[in-house]
Specification:
Number of helices: 7
Low-confidence stretches: 277-285
Protein name: Glycosyltransferase family 2 protein
Pathway: Cell wall biogenesis; cell wall polysaccharide biosynthesis
Strand content: 15-25%
Radius of gyration: 18 Å
Helix content: 25-40%
CATH class of the largest domain: Alpha Beta
CATH topology of the largest domain: Spore Coat Polysaccharide Biosynthesis Protein SpsA, Chain A
Organism: Nocardioides cavernae
InterPro entries: Galactosyl_T_C, Nucleotide-diphossugar_trans
CATH superfamily of the largest domain: Spore Coat Polysaccharide Biosynthesis Protein SpsA, Chain A
Largest sheet: 9 strands, mixed
Number of strands: 14
Shape: globular
Keywords: Glycosyltransferase, Transferase
Oligomer: single chain
């Protein structure tokens, strides 16, 4: 029998985490192991919903003071594999699982373990007065996957080896493929860069990427900044690391917007902080 683990990493977002837990507990197939890596957040504790236990592993902040997103994901996957998982699903804390997400990932990773498989993600509008649907089967009425990523229909698979399309909101991997990949580069701390780096690493090591239409997820709304000014230092630090590893800068759309605002400047092919930065937020859907 295939043993499936779902791993999420979290700092805050307690209501979103609880809603994700409910969606996984009520899917057509439950994960055998549900694990949260709590980053500098002692309020996240083990809980049970409808018979599905959420276990917790705790980590602190990274050496630069940022949240260790890459290292936390690696810890979660390693913990799941050591506990006997045959398929590991990584799901962003903001994502609700569609009813068939766990089953679809289990099927495709078991049948084609040499690829990293991702599912379409819909960004939900602000939470209505009655909340999002409690039954994951009812989430299909909200289905509108992000247009910048592949979106095969339920029941369809798509092989797409463009590393820049990979994201960590929702994906699944076989333990053997994870060992070949080596996980996320833990030099990235704080916000930005580690997703694209993982996609590049996968292709460089001969690991394919793919999209599975049945593994749909729904990203719960929360306020964001556009561009993410409060993450500027993280983006610059992680961008330099990415440039060292791959010879180019990621997140150029954000960097160019920062430049237009006078917050950074280009210097000899690199980006440098220009001024002190305000963290004023602009809310977007």
């Amino acid at each position: 029998m295939t043993r499936v683990a779902v791993v999420t990493i979290a700092h805050g977002r307690h209501e979103h985490l609880a809603a994700q837990h409910r969606s996984l507990a009520r899917g057509t197939v439950r994960p055998d192991h549900y694990l949260t890596v709590a980053m500098d957040d002692p309020a996240i504790v083990e809980e049970q919903v409808d018979g599905l236990v959420r276990e917790v592993v705790a980590v602190g902040r990274g050496p630069a003071g940022g949240l260790p997103l890459a290292a936390a994901r690696n810890l979660g996957v390693r913990t799941a594999i050591d506990a006997g998982a045959d398929v590991v699903v990584l799901l962003d804390v903001d994502c609700l699982a569609a009813a068939g997400l766990v089953a679809s990932y289990a099927d495709v990773v078991t049948a084609q373990p040499e690829r990293i498989w991702s599912g379409p993600v819909t960004y939900l509008p602000p939470r209505p007065p009655g909340g999002y649907p409690e039954d994951p089967a009812d989430l299909t009425a909200w289905d509108d996957p992000h247009p910048a990523r592949p979106s095969p229909a339920p029941g369809e698979l798509l092989e797409s080896d463009d590393p820049d399309l990979f994201w960590s909101l929702s994906f699944a991997v076989h333990p053997r493929t994870w060992e070949r990949l080596g996980g996320f580069c833990e030099g990235y701390t704080g916000y930005g860069g580690e997703d694209t780096d993982l996609g590049r690493t996968a292709i460089a090591r001969g690991i394919g990427l793919g999209w599975v239409g049945g593994a749909r997820a729904y990203h719960q709304h929360h306020p964001v900044s556009n561009p993410p000014v409060e993450h500027l230092d993280d983006i610059l630090r992680n961008g330099r690391l990415f440039h060292e590893r791959w010879g180019e800068w990621p997140m150029t759309g954000w960097l160019e917007e920062f430049e237009r605002r006078g917050l950074v400047r280009r210097e000899d092919g690199n980006w440098t902080r220009e001024t002190a930065v305000s963290s004023t937020k602009e809310t977007t859907p």
